[in-house]
Specification:
Blueprint lengths: L3 H6 L1 H10 L5 H41 L5 H6 L1 H27 L18 E6 L12 H7 L3 E2 H8 L5 E2 L2 H19 L3 E3 L4 E3 H6 L12 E2 L4 E3 L4 H5 L6 E3 L5 E10 L18 E11 L4 H19 L3 E5 L11 E9 L4 E10 L3 H6 L2 E3 L7 E2 L1 E9 H11 L7 E2 L13 E2 L2
Helix pairs in contact: 2-3, 3-5
Length: 426
C-alpha cells in the first residue's frame, strides 16, 4: 500500500516509476488517485464542519432547556445536519473504497539504482561465480536423467493430476527431502528462526502480502471456506505480525519457512514444456526479514549473501542479476535474482529472488514498531528471498553432478541428509 502523502507530495516521481515499470496509463492512474484523494479530503472537511455546527447547536439547545426556554426552533433548524452528515459519510466511504481499490492495483515504486528496462532483457548481471564443468560426454537434461534413474515419473504425475505435475520416486524423493532439510538447517545457522505455517490462508493475508488483486488468476482458492493455497511461504510469514506494534529491540526479526507452493502457471505453448522447471505445485524454502527502515537495504545485501551461500556450498556455478524496472516483482523496490547453471539445458535457472518491499507490505498488514519506548509507531520494512526454490535446484544438481555412466553424484553437503548415499544409480 502507498502512503497518500507520498503520492500527493511526489506525483511526478510516482508517475515516472510506474511508467518505468510498464504500467499502462501511469500518469492518468496517478491523476485519478490524486483526484479521489482530494475529494476524500473535501468530504472529510465538510463532515467535520457540519459536526462542529451540530455540536454547537446541541450545546445551545442544552443551555436553553436548562433555562426552561423553548428550543424547538433550534432543533428543527439543525435537523438536516444529521441527514447531511450521514449522506456525506456514505459518499466518503465509497470514495475511500474506490481509492483503496486503485491503490491496490498499482505496484511499488523502485529505487533510483534499479536499471530502467522494459523486460528481462534489461536485467544486469552483477556477479558470476564458479566455472561450468567441462564434460567429456554430452550432458543430458534432467528429464532424461530422471527417467533413466527411475526417480522422476512424469507419466504418473499427469495421470494423477494433469499436465505440469510429476512424481518423485526413491532417491529422487529422498534428494528433495534432503535438500529442504539442509536448506532449513543452513538458514537457522545464518540467524533465521524456523517457522512452520499453514499452507492455506485467508484472503486478507493474500492482500497483505500484495498477491491480491494482481495475481488472482494465478492462485488456487477454496471458495466455500474463503481459503487460498499459498503461492509461497512469503504470504503467511508476511502476516505473522499483522496488526502488531513491535518494540525496536525486537528487530530484526528473521524467519525461514518451508512450504509447498501452488500457482496456476501461465506458460507459453512450447516453452518449458519438459521437466520440472515449471509446475503448478513445487517446494520452496523462504527467507524473510522484518527490519528497521534505515538498515533495510543493508539487510537486503545480507539476504542476497545468504542465498548465494547456498549455491556456493552446493558447488554449482551461479550468477546474480539486478532486476530492471520492467521485470521487478509487484511489491518490490529492488530485487536480486540468483541463477544456477544447468548444463543439460545450457541455461541459467532462477533459484532465488531477494527483494526489499520497504513498507509496502507492512502498511497493508499494519505491522509497526517503536524505535524506542514512548516513540510514535512507524511501519517496518519487509524483505523476502527464496532460499532456495527446490525444483530448479534439483535440476541443477542432477545436471551438474551427472556422470558418464548415467549415475549422479550427491553433493557433499547433502550426503549426511541422504543417509550417507553418495551416488544415485538406477
Amino acid at each position: 500500500m502507498y502512503d497518500f502523502r507520498f503520492i500527493r507530495n511526489n506525483p511526478e516521481l510516482v508517475k515516472q516509476c510506474l511508467a518505468n515499470r510498464q504500467v499502462e496509463n501511469a500518469a492518468a492512474i496517478v491523476d485519478e488517485i490524486l483526484g479521489l484523494d482530494e475529494r476524500r479530503r473535501e468530504f472529510l472537511n465538510e463532515v467535520e464542519q457540519l459536526k462542529q455546527q451540530r455540536n454547537e447547536a446541541s450545546q445551545q439547545v442544552a443551555q436553553r432547556k436548562k433555562k426552561g426556554e423553548d428550543a424547538s426552533d433550534l432543533i428543527e433548524s439543525t435537523r438536516h445536519l444529521g441527514t447531511r452528515i450521514a449522506a456525506l459519510d456514505a459518499d466518503g466511504r465509497e470514495i475511500e473504497a474506490a481509492l483503496e481499490r486503485r491503490l491496490m492495483e498499482i505496484p511499488n515504486i523502485h529505487t533510483a539504482d534499479v536499471p530502467v528496462g522494459s523486460d528481462e532483457e534489461g536485467n544486469v548481471v552483477i556477479s558470476t561465480e564458479g566455472q561450468p564443468r567441462g564434460f567429456d560426454f554430452t550432458p543430458r537434461a534432467h528429464w532424461e536423467l530422471g527417467e533413466a534413474l527411475d526417480i522422476i515419473d512424469f507419466e504418473r504425475g499427469v495421470k494423477l493430476s494433469g499436465s505440469r505435475f510429476y512424481v518423485l520416486k526413491g532417491a529422487g524423493a529422498k534428494l528433495q527431502r534432503a535438500l529442504i532439510q539442509w536448506l532449513l538447517d543452513l538458514h537457522v545457522k545464518q540467524g533465521y528462526r524456523e517457522v512452520y505455517t499453514p499452507f492455506v490462508v485467508k484472503e486478507r493475508c493474500m492482500e497483505g502480502a500484495r498477491q491480491l488483486p494482481k495475481f488472482r488468476d494465478n492462485l488456487y482458492r477454496d471458495v466455500e471456506d474463503d481459503l487460498w493455497l499459498v503461492p509461497t511461504a512469503e504470504v503467511p510469514v508476511t502476516n505473522l505480525h499483522r496488526d502488531e506494534i513491535l518494540e525496536g529491540a525486537q528487530l530484526p526479526l528473521r524467519y525461514c519457512a518451508y512450504t509447498p507452493c501452488f500457482r496456476r502457471e501461465k506458460m507459453s505453448a512450447g516453452r518449458d514444456v519438459r521437466g520440472i522447471k515449471r509446475g503448478h505445485q513445487f517446494d520452496k524454502v523462504e527467507m524473510y526479514m522484518f527490519e528497521r527502515p534505515e538498515v533495510s537495504y543493508v539487510a537486503l545485501e545480507v539476504m542476497r549473501e545468504h542465498a548465494e551461500a547456498t549455491c556456493r556450498l552446493l558447488d554449482i556455478p551461479f550468477r546474480t542479476k539486478l532486476l530492471c524496472t520492467g521485470d521487478l516483482g509487484f511489491a518490490s523496490t529492488k530485487t536480486y535474482d540468483i541463477e544456477l547453471w544447468a548444463p543439460g539445458q545450457s541455461e541459467w535457472l532462477e533459484v532465488s529472488s531477494c527483494s526489499n518491499t520497504e513498507a509496502f507490505q507492512a502498511r497493508a498488514t499494519n505491522v509497526r514498531f517503536r524505535a524506542e519506548a514512548g516513540a510514535k509507531p512507524e511501519f517496518v520494512h519487509t524483505l523476502n528471498g527464496s532460499g532456495l526454490g527446490v525444483p530448479r535446484t534439483m535440476i541443477a544438481i542432477l545436471e551438474n553432478y551427472q556422470n558418464a555412466d548415467g549415475t549422479v553424484t550427491v553433493p557433499s553437503v547433502l550426503v549426511p541428509y541422504m543417509g550417507g548415499m553418495t551416488t544415485i544409480a538406477a
